[in-house]
Structure formats: structure tokens, C-alpha cells
Amino acid sequence: QVQLVESGGGLVQAGGSLRLSCGASGSIFSINTMSWYRQAPGKQRESVAYIGTGGDTNYADSVKGRFTISRDNAKKLVFLQLNSLKPEDTAVYYCAMGNPPYFWGQGTQVTVSS
Fold it and tell me: In angstroms, how far is the first alpha carbon of the chain from the final one?
């Protein structure tokens, strides 16, 4: 069983930055695509970004140029750098493993004030 634990969320003003981290247990981190999703109040969960085992990345149009996903296989960590944050980025951000995801973290709250 894999456990994913996110950290780094918080309250930030519009235009600010945050760095989310997700640590994984187990031995299958390096052979899995890792993703970040988010869910805003009253909305469906949506994909934000993913990074493949070879480092290939993909981003939702709404975050391109502002967010950056990266991974450290040796430490079993995946990161999401959030820059130029907007109030509409407010959501619970989830780390996920697999494509499609089959393990999920508990989420970390990101709140962007205007």
C-alpha cells in the first residue's frame, strides 16, 4: 500500500507563490506517473499537471506558465511550484500516483486572497 502525504499549502495573496510537496511511501514511486489535481468548492476535481517517469510534463491550460511540476525519484518526492497565484487557484490540491491515478493523498488547502 502506498501513502501520499502533501504539504506546503496555505494562505497567500494574489500574485504570490507557494511550493507544494508530496512524499510517497513504498517502492513504486519511480515507475509511476505523478500528478497534481485540485478541487475548488462546488466544482469537480480537475487535473493540474502531471510528470511522467521520464520527466515529461503536461499542464492544464489554466496554469501553463505559472505552475511547474517536478520530481525527485531518489527522495520519492513530487513538487508543484505555484507562481503568480490568482483567487481562482483556491482549492484543495491533491497528489496522485498512476495514470490514471490509483493512489491519492489527503490534500492540502491553497487559498489565494484578492
Answer: 40
Reading the chain (114 residues) residue by residue, the pLDDT tens digits are: 899 999 999 999 999 999 999 999 988 888 899 999 999 999 999 999 999 999 999 999 999 999 999 999 999 999 999 999 999 999 999 999 999 999 999 999 999 999
Assess contact for 39 and 45: CB atoms under 8 A. yes
Q: CA-CA distance, 59 to 13, in Å (whole number)? A: 23
**47-75 CB burial, b ≥16 within 10 A, e <16:** bbbbbeeeeeeebeeebeeebbbebeeee
